[in-house]
Design a protein that fits this description.
Order of helices and strands: HEEEHHEEEEE
Distance between the termini: 51 Å
Number of strands: 8
Strand order of the largest sheet: 1-2-3
Shape: extended
Oligomer: single chain
């Protein structure tokens, strides 16, 4: 931080920093230090919403930048909520943590309540695919035909298809509302995503 040429300082003395400048510098140093030690991608409560701000899913708080979120995680409210959740899980016997998600076993991706057991299968690569432009004979409306090959999936397994808006995805930053994304997933293949024009 440059303290030179401030009011009340001698030449070459470094100057007198205001309280706000000192606090801003301290916050920036703490943010850089926290980012070196904490990986936000593995934090199960960290969520970036469609507006671009950050949310804590545990405390239901909104933060304008990652530094503010990191400061929140060290605060009393977040630590109290973590302790409360750990005590509740201990009481309910859910103390086992899934190493992939960092959340308690049975909460995310385990077919909770559906009677399905999630298989931790190794991804075997992308499926073969072909995209063809088509046109309806009657309405003359244009369309796309997606053909994907999944030779290794089960007999009665239907791949899952989901359309995602530009504000939900995390690939393109900033989001472009002129595009939407189609995701197709089926175990044990990798999920395929297609970027499409959002025509209205």
């Amino acid at each position: 931080m440059d303290y030179q040429n401030r009011a009340g300082s001698k030449f070459g003395g470094g100057g007198v920093a205001s309280h706000s400048a000192t606090n801003a510098d301290r916050r920036e140093r703490l943010r850089k230090l926290a980012l070196e030690t904490i990986d936000l991608d593995k934090d199960p409560y960290f969520f970036k919403n469609h507006v671009g701000s950050f949310e804590c899913k545990l405390c239901l708080t909104v933060h304008q930048n990652d530094g503010s979120y990191l400061a929140h995680t060290q605060g009393k409210k977040h630590q109290t909520n973590l302790a409360r959740r750990a005590a509740r899980e201990q009481k309910e016997g859910k103390s086992q943590i899934d190493p992939n998600t960092g959340l308690p076993v049975g909460v995310v991706g385990a077919g909770f309540g559906a009677g399905m057991v999630r298989k931790n299968t190794v991804k075997i690569g992308r499926p073969g695919y072909r995209i063809t432009k088509v046109r309806d004979q009657v309405t003359r409306q244009q369309g796309l035909l997606f053909q994907l090959q999944y030779p290794e999936i089960g007999q009665n397994v239907v791949p899952k298809v989901r359309f995602m808006s530009a504000f939900e995805q995390r690939i393109d930053d900033p989001p472009d509302k002129n595009y939407q994304y189609m995701l197709i997933a089926s175990e044990p293949y990798e999920t395929c995503g297609f970027k499409l024009q959002a025509r209205r």
